[in-house]
Amino acid sequence: MKYFAQEYDPENEEFWGLVGLLHDVDFEQFPDDHCVRGIEILRSYDIDESLIRAAMSHGYGLSGVEFEPVHIMEKILYATDELTGLIGAVAIMRPSRSVQDLELKSVKKKFKQPSFAAGCSRETIQRGADMLNWQLDELITRTITAMRTLDCVE
User: Fold this and answer.
1) How far apart are CA 121 and CA 62, in angstroms?
2) Which terminal residue of the chain has fewer beta carbons within 10 Å of its beta carbon, N or C?
């Protein structure tokens, strides 16, 4: 998220980073109530409502969350959340096990294979690209680039 903040909202890079850090706060413990429970958890710590809204908006239309992504940050989180899982799965199948040498064509090939990383919703990824008015190729390429800055696969 900080990578995208540098382009779209550099004065709030730390806020974007916190949103990225906290967006899945509830996923491991409550996968069936993901984001709904996240709202409860974050509110119990008196986290600012703007951060809660931004972090949990990635569950819009997926888990009963009514925070529709409206800010560019929320749209990017929504678009990249599922996609980073798919990119990570593609990366770990490579000999390098890294995003550093991962190319768009490799991700697109697996994107078209519904059985590969079946838990990553292609519909959600496409909806996110549409929210941003980006082509799918642009979203994938930019997300790979962002992940490279962290030298991670997820």
Assistant:
1) 10
2) C
